[in-house]
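sorry for the late reply, my laptop died twice this morning and i had to redo everyting from scratch. anyway the thing you sent over, i finally got around to it. pasting the sequence first so we're on the same page, its 121 residues, then the predicted structure underneath. double check i copied it right bc i was rushing
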Amino acid sequence: QVQLVESGGGLVQAGGSLRLSCAASGRIFSINTMGWYRQAPGKQRELVADITYGGSTNYVDSVKGRFTISRDNGKNTVYLQMNTLKPEDTAVYYCNALGVMTRIGTRNDYWGQGTQVTVSS
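ok and here's the structure:
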């Protein structure tokens, strides 16, 4: 099975930083796109950032200039460096992997369990 394991969430003060990590494990050949979504209470889940296998990135406007997404294809791991955090960044953050190709020929999308990020004011 393919699993996404997230780490790095927690409680920080406004202006602080966190670095989220998400490692995909299993018999993986390649992953097309990896990204981070978040969902705050009472709001829709939104894409925060994603990154293709080749390194093309995409960010929601509210985090541009503050967050940086990166990936290590050899480790099947995606990172989200979050700087200058604001209370409105508080949400459950979900790792996502699209187009996961396994070494037995399957192709599927996967989600992590989610990790809580809380930014206090």
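The chain has a mean pLDDT of 97.
thats about all i looked at so far, will dig more tmrw
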